[in-house]
Write a structure and sequence with these properties.
single chain; alpha/beta; Aldehyde Dehydrogenase, Chain A, domain 1; Aldehyde Dehydrogenase, Chain A, domain 2; seven-stranded mixed β-sheet; 20% strand; binds nicotinamide-adenine-dinucleotide
């Protein structure tokens, strides 16, 4: 089995800890490689390198930095198929979704390369004569990027691309369930010609290496995507660093009595069972008008029965494995909890019969809004159907959770649609589309316990830069603001 190394100061390096860990293929439970179990000592080396690289990288004109990003785009495009296959093997999602993940990386690097010729500040009049006011963008400094396993190439890219174009240097820690995807991405960044020290990669657990990244005094910003629990820990321990947190979700699709049910069905299948329900934006609740609930439940069960579980590499697989054994146990725990809470199990409710970390797509009906299966993030292929009587109740139920990431409404009624847009407490609302499928040039993020950060598009630039205010007084005398004589 191959042993992979960290990337520090432009070189592939073994950890000072001399320890390694394995990453498994969730469809076969077989190890795919061994990786460095990095330590605080490795982090110190990486931070020293990132600090040394900072000034020259920041001084490189942004359009020149962009040339490297355009090269990354080219290399990602050339390698798309291979990278997608690696992602299927390490993370488990089906091939076409993995290819979408790589495409998202391509798109964000391309978008951010374009920002190299913009990176706007703004100008504004002064209240005084002969004075010029403006803002410019400066990098945050050395930043830590910590990412989850469910989009192991796209999410790191959502952070790396803006961080690079803004002139930061980076310590990147991928999830310990998908270190190979992180390594493959960094190989491409290196091949594109990033100077040494600009990006450093350390593999290892959240506790052993993520934690010291959060606390490192020379790291000035943290961009994190992951669970609410880790997000809270980061908020508490990162002291005064600039922190971006993209956390969990418990997203709902509302289906009103006038909805196109065939369209809604496609949206629910994709939202609930795409990526085996392991998306922060997964539709884990269907809030449906009582007049159409029975018909829709039948339609959903019929279609779900036809979904095929299997390795994501097979072209006829609809649902790949969960990420690991404890994810299977967690999903099974929630399924039993749902039954005990009095929800009706309409379909599924058991692990897959094949080897690997599989779980059958599962549908509950008669779910009450306060049941734990309707409140907590299960992060698996489980959907809860909740009946409502009108749009106000639909929105109340939709909002009756601690999270606020994505949401959706299926209706032909403009008034319902705009009520949902205005009243749902979430960072994203779709109309007549599922809860998943972000486009990279729009801001992405949530409210409430999902965290209030935004990334992608221009929001990514704001996350990885500071706005500096410039006053230029060319009056030749001391002028005082606020009318002070
Ligand atoms: P996680 O919080 O367990 O881990 C995320 C990353 O944080 C990993 O790299 C992990 O090693 C690291 N980490 C864990 N403990 C740490 C600590 N104490 N200090 C520093 N780093 C630490 O989450 P996960 O299981 O990898 O991902 C699933 C979660 O991510 C779900 O809740 C999902 O909703 C969320 N998610 C959110 C978004 C979003 O954009 N809002 C996108 C994808 C996933």
């Amino acid at each position: 089995m191959k042993t992979y190394k960290n990337f520090i100061d432009g070189k592939w390096t073994s950890s000072c800890s001399k320890k390694t860990f394995c990453s498994l293929n969730p469809a076969t439970e077989r190890p795919i490689g061994s990786f460095q179990d990095s330590s605080k000592e490795d982090l110190d080396l990486a931070v020293t390198s990132a600090e040394e690289a900072l000034s020259s990288w920041t001084d490189t004109p942004a359009p020149k930095r962009a040339e490297i990003l355009f090269k990354i785009v080219e290399l990602l495009k050339k390698d798309k198929e291979r990278l997608a296959k690696i992602e299927v093997i390490e993370m488990g999602k089906v091939y076409k979704e993995a290819a979408g993940d790589i495409q998202e990386a391509i798109d964000i690097f391309e978008y951010m390369a374009g920002e190299g010729r913009r990176l706007f500040g703004h100008t504004t009049p002064s209240e005084l004569k002969n004075k010029f006011n403006a803002t410019i963008r400066i990098p945050v400094g050395v930043v830590g990027i910590i990412t989850p396993w469910n989009f192991p190439i796209a999410i790191p890219s959502w952070k790396l691309a803006p961080a690079l174009i803004c002139g930061n240097t980076i310590i990147f820690k991928p999830s310990s369930y998908t270190p190979l995807c992180g390594i493959e991405l960094i190989k491409i960044l290196n091949e594109a010609g990033l100077p040494k020290g600009v990006v450093n990669l350390l593999t290892g657990s959240g506790e052993r290496i993520g934690n010291p990244i959060i606390k490192h005094p020379k790291i000035k910003g943290i961009s994190f995507t992951g669970s609410v629990e880790t997000g809270k820990f980061i908020r508490k321990n990162a002291e005064l660093k600039k922190v971006g947190l993209e956390l969990g979700g418990k997203n709902a699709i509302i289906i009103m009595e006038d909805a196109n049910l065939d369209l809604a069905l496609e949206g629910v299948l994709w939202g609930a069972f795409g990526t085996t329900g392991q998306r922060c934006t997964a539709a884990s609740r269907v809030i449906i008008h009582e007049k159409v609930a029975k018909t829709f439940e039948k339609m959903l069960v019929n279609k779900t029965k036809k979904l095929k579980l299997g390795s994501g590499i097979m072209h006829n697989t609809d649902i790949g494995p969960l990420i690991n054994k404890s994810a299977v146990e967690k999903v099974d725990y929630y399924v039993n909890l749902g039954i005990n809470e009095g929800a009706k199990l309409l379909y599924g409710g058991k692990p897959g019969k094949i080897k690997g970390f599989f779980y059958c797509p599962t549908i509950f009906s008669n779910v009450k809004p306060d049941m734990r299966i309707a409140q907590e993030e299960i992060f698996g292929p489980v959907v809860s159907i909740i009946k409502i009587k009108d749009i106000n109740e639909a929105i109340n139920v939709c909002n009756n959770i601690k999270y606020g990431l994505s949401s959706s409404i299926y209706t032909e009624n403009m008034a319902y649609a705009f009520k949902a847009i205005n009243k749902i407490e979430a960072g994203i609302t779709y109309v007549n589309a599922s809860t998943i499928g972000a486009e990279i040039h729009l801001p992405f993020g949530g409210v409430k316990k999902t965290g209030s950060s935004r990334e992608a598009g221009w929001a990514g630039i704001e996350e990885f830069s500071e706005e500096k205010t410039i006053y230029i007084d060319y009056s030749g005398k001391l002028q005082k603001a606020q009318g002070i004589e």
